[in-house]
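Changelog excerpt

This revision adds worked examples to the README so contributors can see how folded entries look when concatenated. The first example is reproduced verbatim below.
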Amino acid sequence: MAGFVIVVDMQHDFVMASGALPVPDAEAIVAPMAEWLAALDPAETAGVLMTFDTHVASIYDGSAEAAQFPIHCERGTEGWETVLDPGVIDPAIPVYALEKGVFDMWEEPGLRIRPLAGGAEVDRDHFFERLAASGVTMVTVVGVAADYCVRWAADGLIARGFAVELPAALTRGIAQGIEAVAGDLRAKGAVALV
């Protein structure tokens, strides 16, 4: 049965040392993640979703997040761009994008997922309902930051009935690593740290 992959916020501002809000040691996972994505088997992978933390300065300034972090991942800037080339993924595997304005990809109502190859956007919740209905039960989550956006992505998947796989070598955190996050999440559902 095919699985699904979510690549969380692998954007310049989070990954590169020159970014506005770099996650410690995140640059070290770029090359291994690119190799891992390139090796995904279309027979075993129903798709890849890349999430993008997305902010607009005029809105961000009044947000709760602004009290914790400086402006980052402003849409249209280098900081917002992914550090990965989606073109390394086998063209037989559909690749999608989701832009979100808060840590938790599940929190904002009405978000839409768009295919990178073109085509109609789909409501996020409907997208995952269809994914489950197609028989996908396992989602692998990689990216940054383990103790923020990766945690909430995994938590939301568990709440929707998916099992979650968290490859330690392809994830970095700010104050907590993926090992601690996985331990916290295990009480909620099926989580495998690999």
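The second example, added in the same revision:
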Amino acid sequence: MTDTSYRIQGATGAWEVVIGLEVHAQVTSNAKLFSGSATKFGAEPNTQVSLVDAAMPGMLPVPNAECIRQAVRTGMAIDAQINSWSRFDRKNYFYADLPQGYQISQLYHPIVGEGAVDIAPDPKAPEATKRIGVERIHIEQDAGKLMHDQHPTRSYVDLNRSGVALMEIVSRPDMRSPAEAGAYLRKLRAILRYVGSCDGNMEEGSMRADVNVSVRKPGEELGTRTETKNVNSVRFVMAVVEQEAKRQVEVLEDGGRIVQETRLYDPDRNETRSMRSKEDAHDYRYFPDPDLLPLVLEDDFLADCRASLPEMPDAKRKRYEALGISPYQADVLTAEVEAARWFDALLDTGAKPAAAANWTTSELFGALNRLGRGIDDSPVGPSQAAELLSLIADGTLSSSLAKQVFEVMLETGEGASAIVEARGLKQTSDTGAIERVIADVMAKNPGQLEQYRGGKVALFGFFVGQTMKAMGGKANPTVVNALVRKALGEA
């Protein structure tokens, strides 16, 4: 499918937006790409820097096999071509946070070739998918970080990030709306987190996107694109697409032209601003790195990488749907790897899939959202949830009683059965006791009874509700409905 609904309306008609993303994902590894320095986030400045990272004379890079492995596994997860022969290149430029005077990257022979990511732009219709092409994934080293104080001429350099391994995942310009760009970034982040090759923490900078945007009249050639750098949230990526597309349309309709340039996004003003003219590959004087041999991946290594992959989100979603779980719920349950693991553990207890999905996506996720907690920090584990669901299934608890028990579980961490016994919350199906309560309800409400006899059948729900209220919500609703119907029929 193609999103043809999103258009920028200008004075000269509708404009189509064309979007491509270059996502930089920090590789999950305890050491940097070419040195043994640590990669822990939040360390004191310049405490995780080796002689290689600082570009001391004579220090030679040595590739980190784990970083190579993670990049290969990521490529396999999106069904991409894995290049058994690849090579590192030097990207030459000067900046204060780049002590070598060049960045080691892969321009000409990346480790991963073409692949694809399937997205569902509309969360309410997860079955309506679109395929976004991925052009390549290459490995490169990160630069350091500049920090500026209030003094107008003073900056500080922190080299802790210098040499940290990055995967640059380059999409094709296949997206046509902010929703598609957001869906692609969310799906890619989910895949990386399932694989374990990146933690996807955009707030800490371990995943960020360069957003390429151009506009054109539908059916025309691609327009000139701009690149907005280092956008660090899905919401901001969508905002960049919307604002930059509108800006370009205004420029073109005013008779101007779009300049190929690098821009930045200001979230406070919700606007993009020009940084510098966009460089081309020849500006960086790429050439093969003479200190590094080509990467040659053996068949056994590739087989081990493939065998280590977990079940991917799309495969897991299809498995859930085959168990009778709705497409929407399956999509919600597989969006985050931690939630999927939790739900798989619940299914392993023998819980009925559809009932478990209903309860998890409504009751559990709602409670966690209210408490501001994640699934890994849930006070109720899969085995406790299974116990509660079994009490609902066997009729011990009604839905209203189950909610009461669940609230106690959230507060105390106690098991459902223990709470039911200690607090007397067991549902009753005692027909004699229920019939006595129904008779009392009807005796106290003669007016409503007379109206029901006169044809106001909607009052049936009134008698059921009053009976349930009188019994403290402990009566079996199915039994109550049957007995109320019987009593009204007799009346």
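Reviewer comment on example two: The chain is about 40% helix and 20% strand. The chain has three domains: 8-302, 311-423, 431-490.
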